[in-house]
Design brief:
Keywords: Membrane, Transmembrane, Transmembrane helix. By secondary structure, this protein is mostly helical. It has one domain. The chain is built from 1 helix and no strands. The mean pLDDT is 71.
């Protein structure tokens, strides 16, 4: 039987997973900026790219 505590724990785990996933994608775009300067970091372009 699935109780409300387990359901709330599942939702909390999903939120933490999504935050960690966005943080990892943020880091990957930050390190990938050396290869691809046009890659936006966290949804916004870096100030070093002048276009």
């Amino acid at each position: 039987m699935i109780g409300p505590f387990f359901l709330s724990f599942l939702v909390l785990l999903w939120i933490v997973f999504m935050v960690a996933l966005s943080f990892l994608s943020c880091l990957s775009t930050y390190f990938g900026e050396m290869l691809l300067p046009d890659t936006p970091i966290c949804g916004r372009y870096p100030m070093t790219v002048n276009r």
